[in-house]
Specification:
mainly alpha, 4 helices, about 65% helix
Length: about 120
């Protein structure tokens, strides 16, 4: 392998490991979890081949998007002039719903309604 090719491979690996091929809000693992939990709530599984939000997360981030980035493709926001739904609002709403569900479980448990 010549030195230029080796340098390119090292640069590519460094770039992939930085997650810079992902939008900023998807570079953090915890933010990724919020995205995939929200997708799972928005589009519940309806078949016998259910996949969890964890499986979707791992496949999409760790395999598919990394594979595409390795070949020069990146995920980016559309430039189409449409009023899209704000992703941060969606994530905040999903997080709030999950917190409310958890609070209800704790309240029910405290009252002895569930164990």
């Amino acid at each position: 392998m010549d030195s230029k090719n080796k340098k390119n491979r090292i640069e590519l690996r460094t770039w992939l490991n930085s997650y810079k091929y992902l939008p900023c809000f998807l570079r953090d693992f915890h933010d990724q979890k919020d995205i995939f939990k929200s997708v799972h709530v928005t589009y519940p599984n309806t078949s016998s081949d259910d996949i969890s939000w964890i499986q979707g997360h791992l496949y999409t981030i760790d395999r598919f998007l990394r594979f595409m980035a390795r070949h020069g493709y990146t995920l980016q926001r559309s430039k189409t002039n449409i009023d899209f739904v704000d992703i941060r609002t969606t994530l905040a709403e999903t997080r709030k719903e999950q917190e409310e569900e958890f609070k209800q479980i704790l309240a029910d448990r405290k009252q002895g309604l569930i164990q």
